[in-house]
Write a structure and sequence with these properties.
alpha/beta; Aspartate Aminotransferase, domain 1; Methionine aminotransferase; aminotransferase; kynurenine-oxoglutarate transaminase activity; 14 helices; binds glutamine; Aspartate Aminotransferase, domain 2; binds 4'-deoxy-4'-aminopyridoxal-5'-phosphate
Length: 375
């Protein structure tokens, strides 16, 4: 008997596998295809011959914890205690899983806003808790009235993802004010803020949960170096939480992984001294705009994208197939892979929308756009 009968293979695995099998240009799973900063790769090459190959302390390599605290101070003017409030994890995915396992009890409820990234529900179900899927508005802003109606004393956590995968939407200050109003009514309600794309926003500035005074004592913040440094395969990220929650999170972490890959922790701690994360937004904004321009003559209608490296597009004027069928045909007939947006909804809502990843070099974007313009 399956413990997770409703969970299948992740759509990112399915689509990337199919893209490889058909030799398609892979704009489905979100990963960059341009080279990693040479300054980072040369740090790794040097470290390979140094004495950095044994366990780090359980919560992370101490200099890295200090650098993360400095990054948060520089980015958001928030003072975080490295030893007690930061945990280095094997990617954001492990941070999210560990947090949910540590803090959610059987029969409690966790609110997940649809469309939602795929790694939130399974850890909730494994706690024998309930994932309450609440739809975002049509423009992908949260519907705080519906969210409030979904809250009760059983609700233990709301998960927000800002900037948002797959839609590229970012939260406004008004959203935080409404969220904080709801939290006032429920003193035990926690917020898990998945901000893995925190440095990838465009015209509007990212508002981090780190900057919201009312949230700090009950918010668990998740980030990933995979997105910020173009190294998704390194699987390294971190969790920031107030000490009373972090004590519980570390109890699970120590038996899930104990500590994270040492060489990547040392390398990132050195790299943080020289890298400028504030440049990332402009870098991806240019990619977004270039991809948009390349698709101007196509029959895809591109939706607004305020952050992340994903572009949602409607194919309504091309086909009335459901989005999964359309994405499969896009691979087999046109040689481009994308992600069907219906897979981000609990009820599989088909809006004829697909997601392209534009974290690609210009040659790849051009080749993909040429194919997409011929549909
Ligand atoms: N959250 C979101 C919204 C994501 O898009 C991703 C994957 N890119 C993750 C979490 C997982 O990040 P990681 O690869 O660091 O585990
Ligand atoms: N976050 C990536 C995406 O949205 C996928 C990561 C994964 O494959 N698990 O495409």
């Amino acid at each position: 008997m399956s413990k997770l009968p409703q969970i299948g293979t992740s759509i990112f695995t399915v689509m990337s596998k199919m893209a490889n099998e058909h030799n398609a240009i892979n704009l489905s799973q979100g990963f960059p295809n341009f080279p990693v900063d040479e300054r980072l790769t040369s740090i790794v090459a040097r470290l390979a011959t140094e004495n950095v190959h044994q366990y780090t302390p359980m919560s992370g390599y101490p200099p890295l914890l200090n650098k993360i605290a400095k990054l948060i101070l520089d980015s958001y003017k928030r003072v975080v205690q490295p030893e007690t409030e930061i945990l280095v994890t094997a990617g954001a995915t492990q941070g999210i899983f560990t947090t949910i396992q540590a803090l959610i009890k059987a029969n409690e409820e966790v609110i997940i806003l649809d469309p939602s990234y795929d790694c939130y529900e399974a850890p909730v179900l494994l706690c024998n808790a309930h994932a309450i899927r609440v739809p975002l508005n049509d423009d992908y802003t949260p519907n705080w009235e519906i969210i409030e109606k979904a809250c009760s004393i059983k609700t233990r956590m709301i998960i927000i993802n800002n900037p948002h995968n797959p839609t590229g939407k970012i939260l406004a200050e008004a959203d935080f004010i409404k969220l904080e109003k709801i939290l006032e009514k429920y003193p035990d309600l926690l917020v898990l803020s998945d901000e893995v794309y925190e440095y990838i926003t465009f015209e509007e500035k990212h508002i981090s949960a780190h900057t919201r005074q009312e949230l700090l004592n009950r918010c668990i913040m998740i980030s990933s170096f995979g997105k910020s440094f173009h190294i998704t395969g390194w699987k390294i990220g971190y969790v920031v939480a107030p000490e009373h929650l972090m004590i519980e999170i570390k109890k699970v972490h120590q038996f899930l992984v104990f500590s994270v890959n040492s060489i990547s922790q040392v390398a990132i701690s050195e790299y943080l001294d020289i890298v400028d994360v504030t440049k990332l937004g402009k870098f991806y904004q240019e990619k977004r705009d270039y991809f948009k321009k390349l698709l101007e003559k196509s029959r895809f209608e591109l939706k607004p994208c305020e952050g992340t490296y994903f572009q949602v597009a409607s194919y309504k004027s091309i086909s009335d197939e459901d989005d999964v069928t359309f994405c499969k045909r896009l691979i087999t007939e046109y040689g481009v892979a994308a992600i069907p947006i219906s897979t981000f909804y609990a009820n599989g809502k088909d809006l004829k929308l697909i997601r392209f990843c534009f974290a690609k070099d210009n040659a790849t974007l051009e080749a993909a756009a040429e194919r997409l313009c011929n549909i």
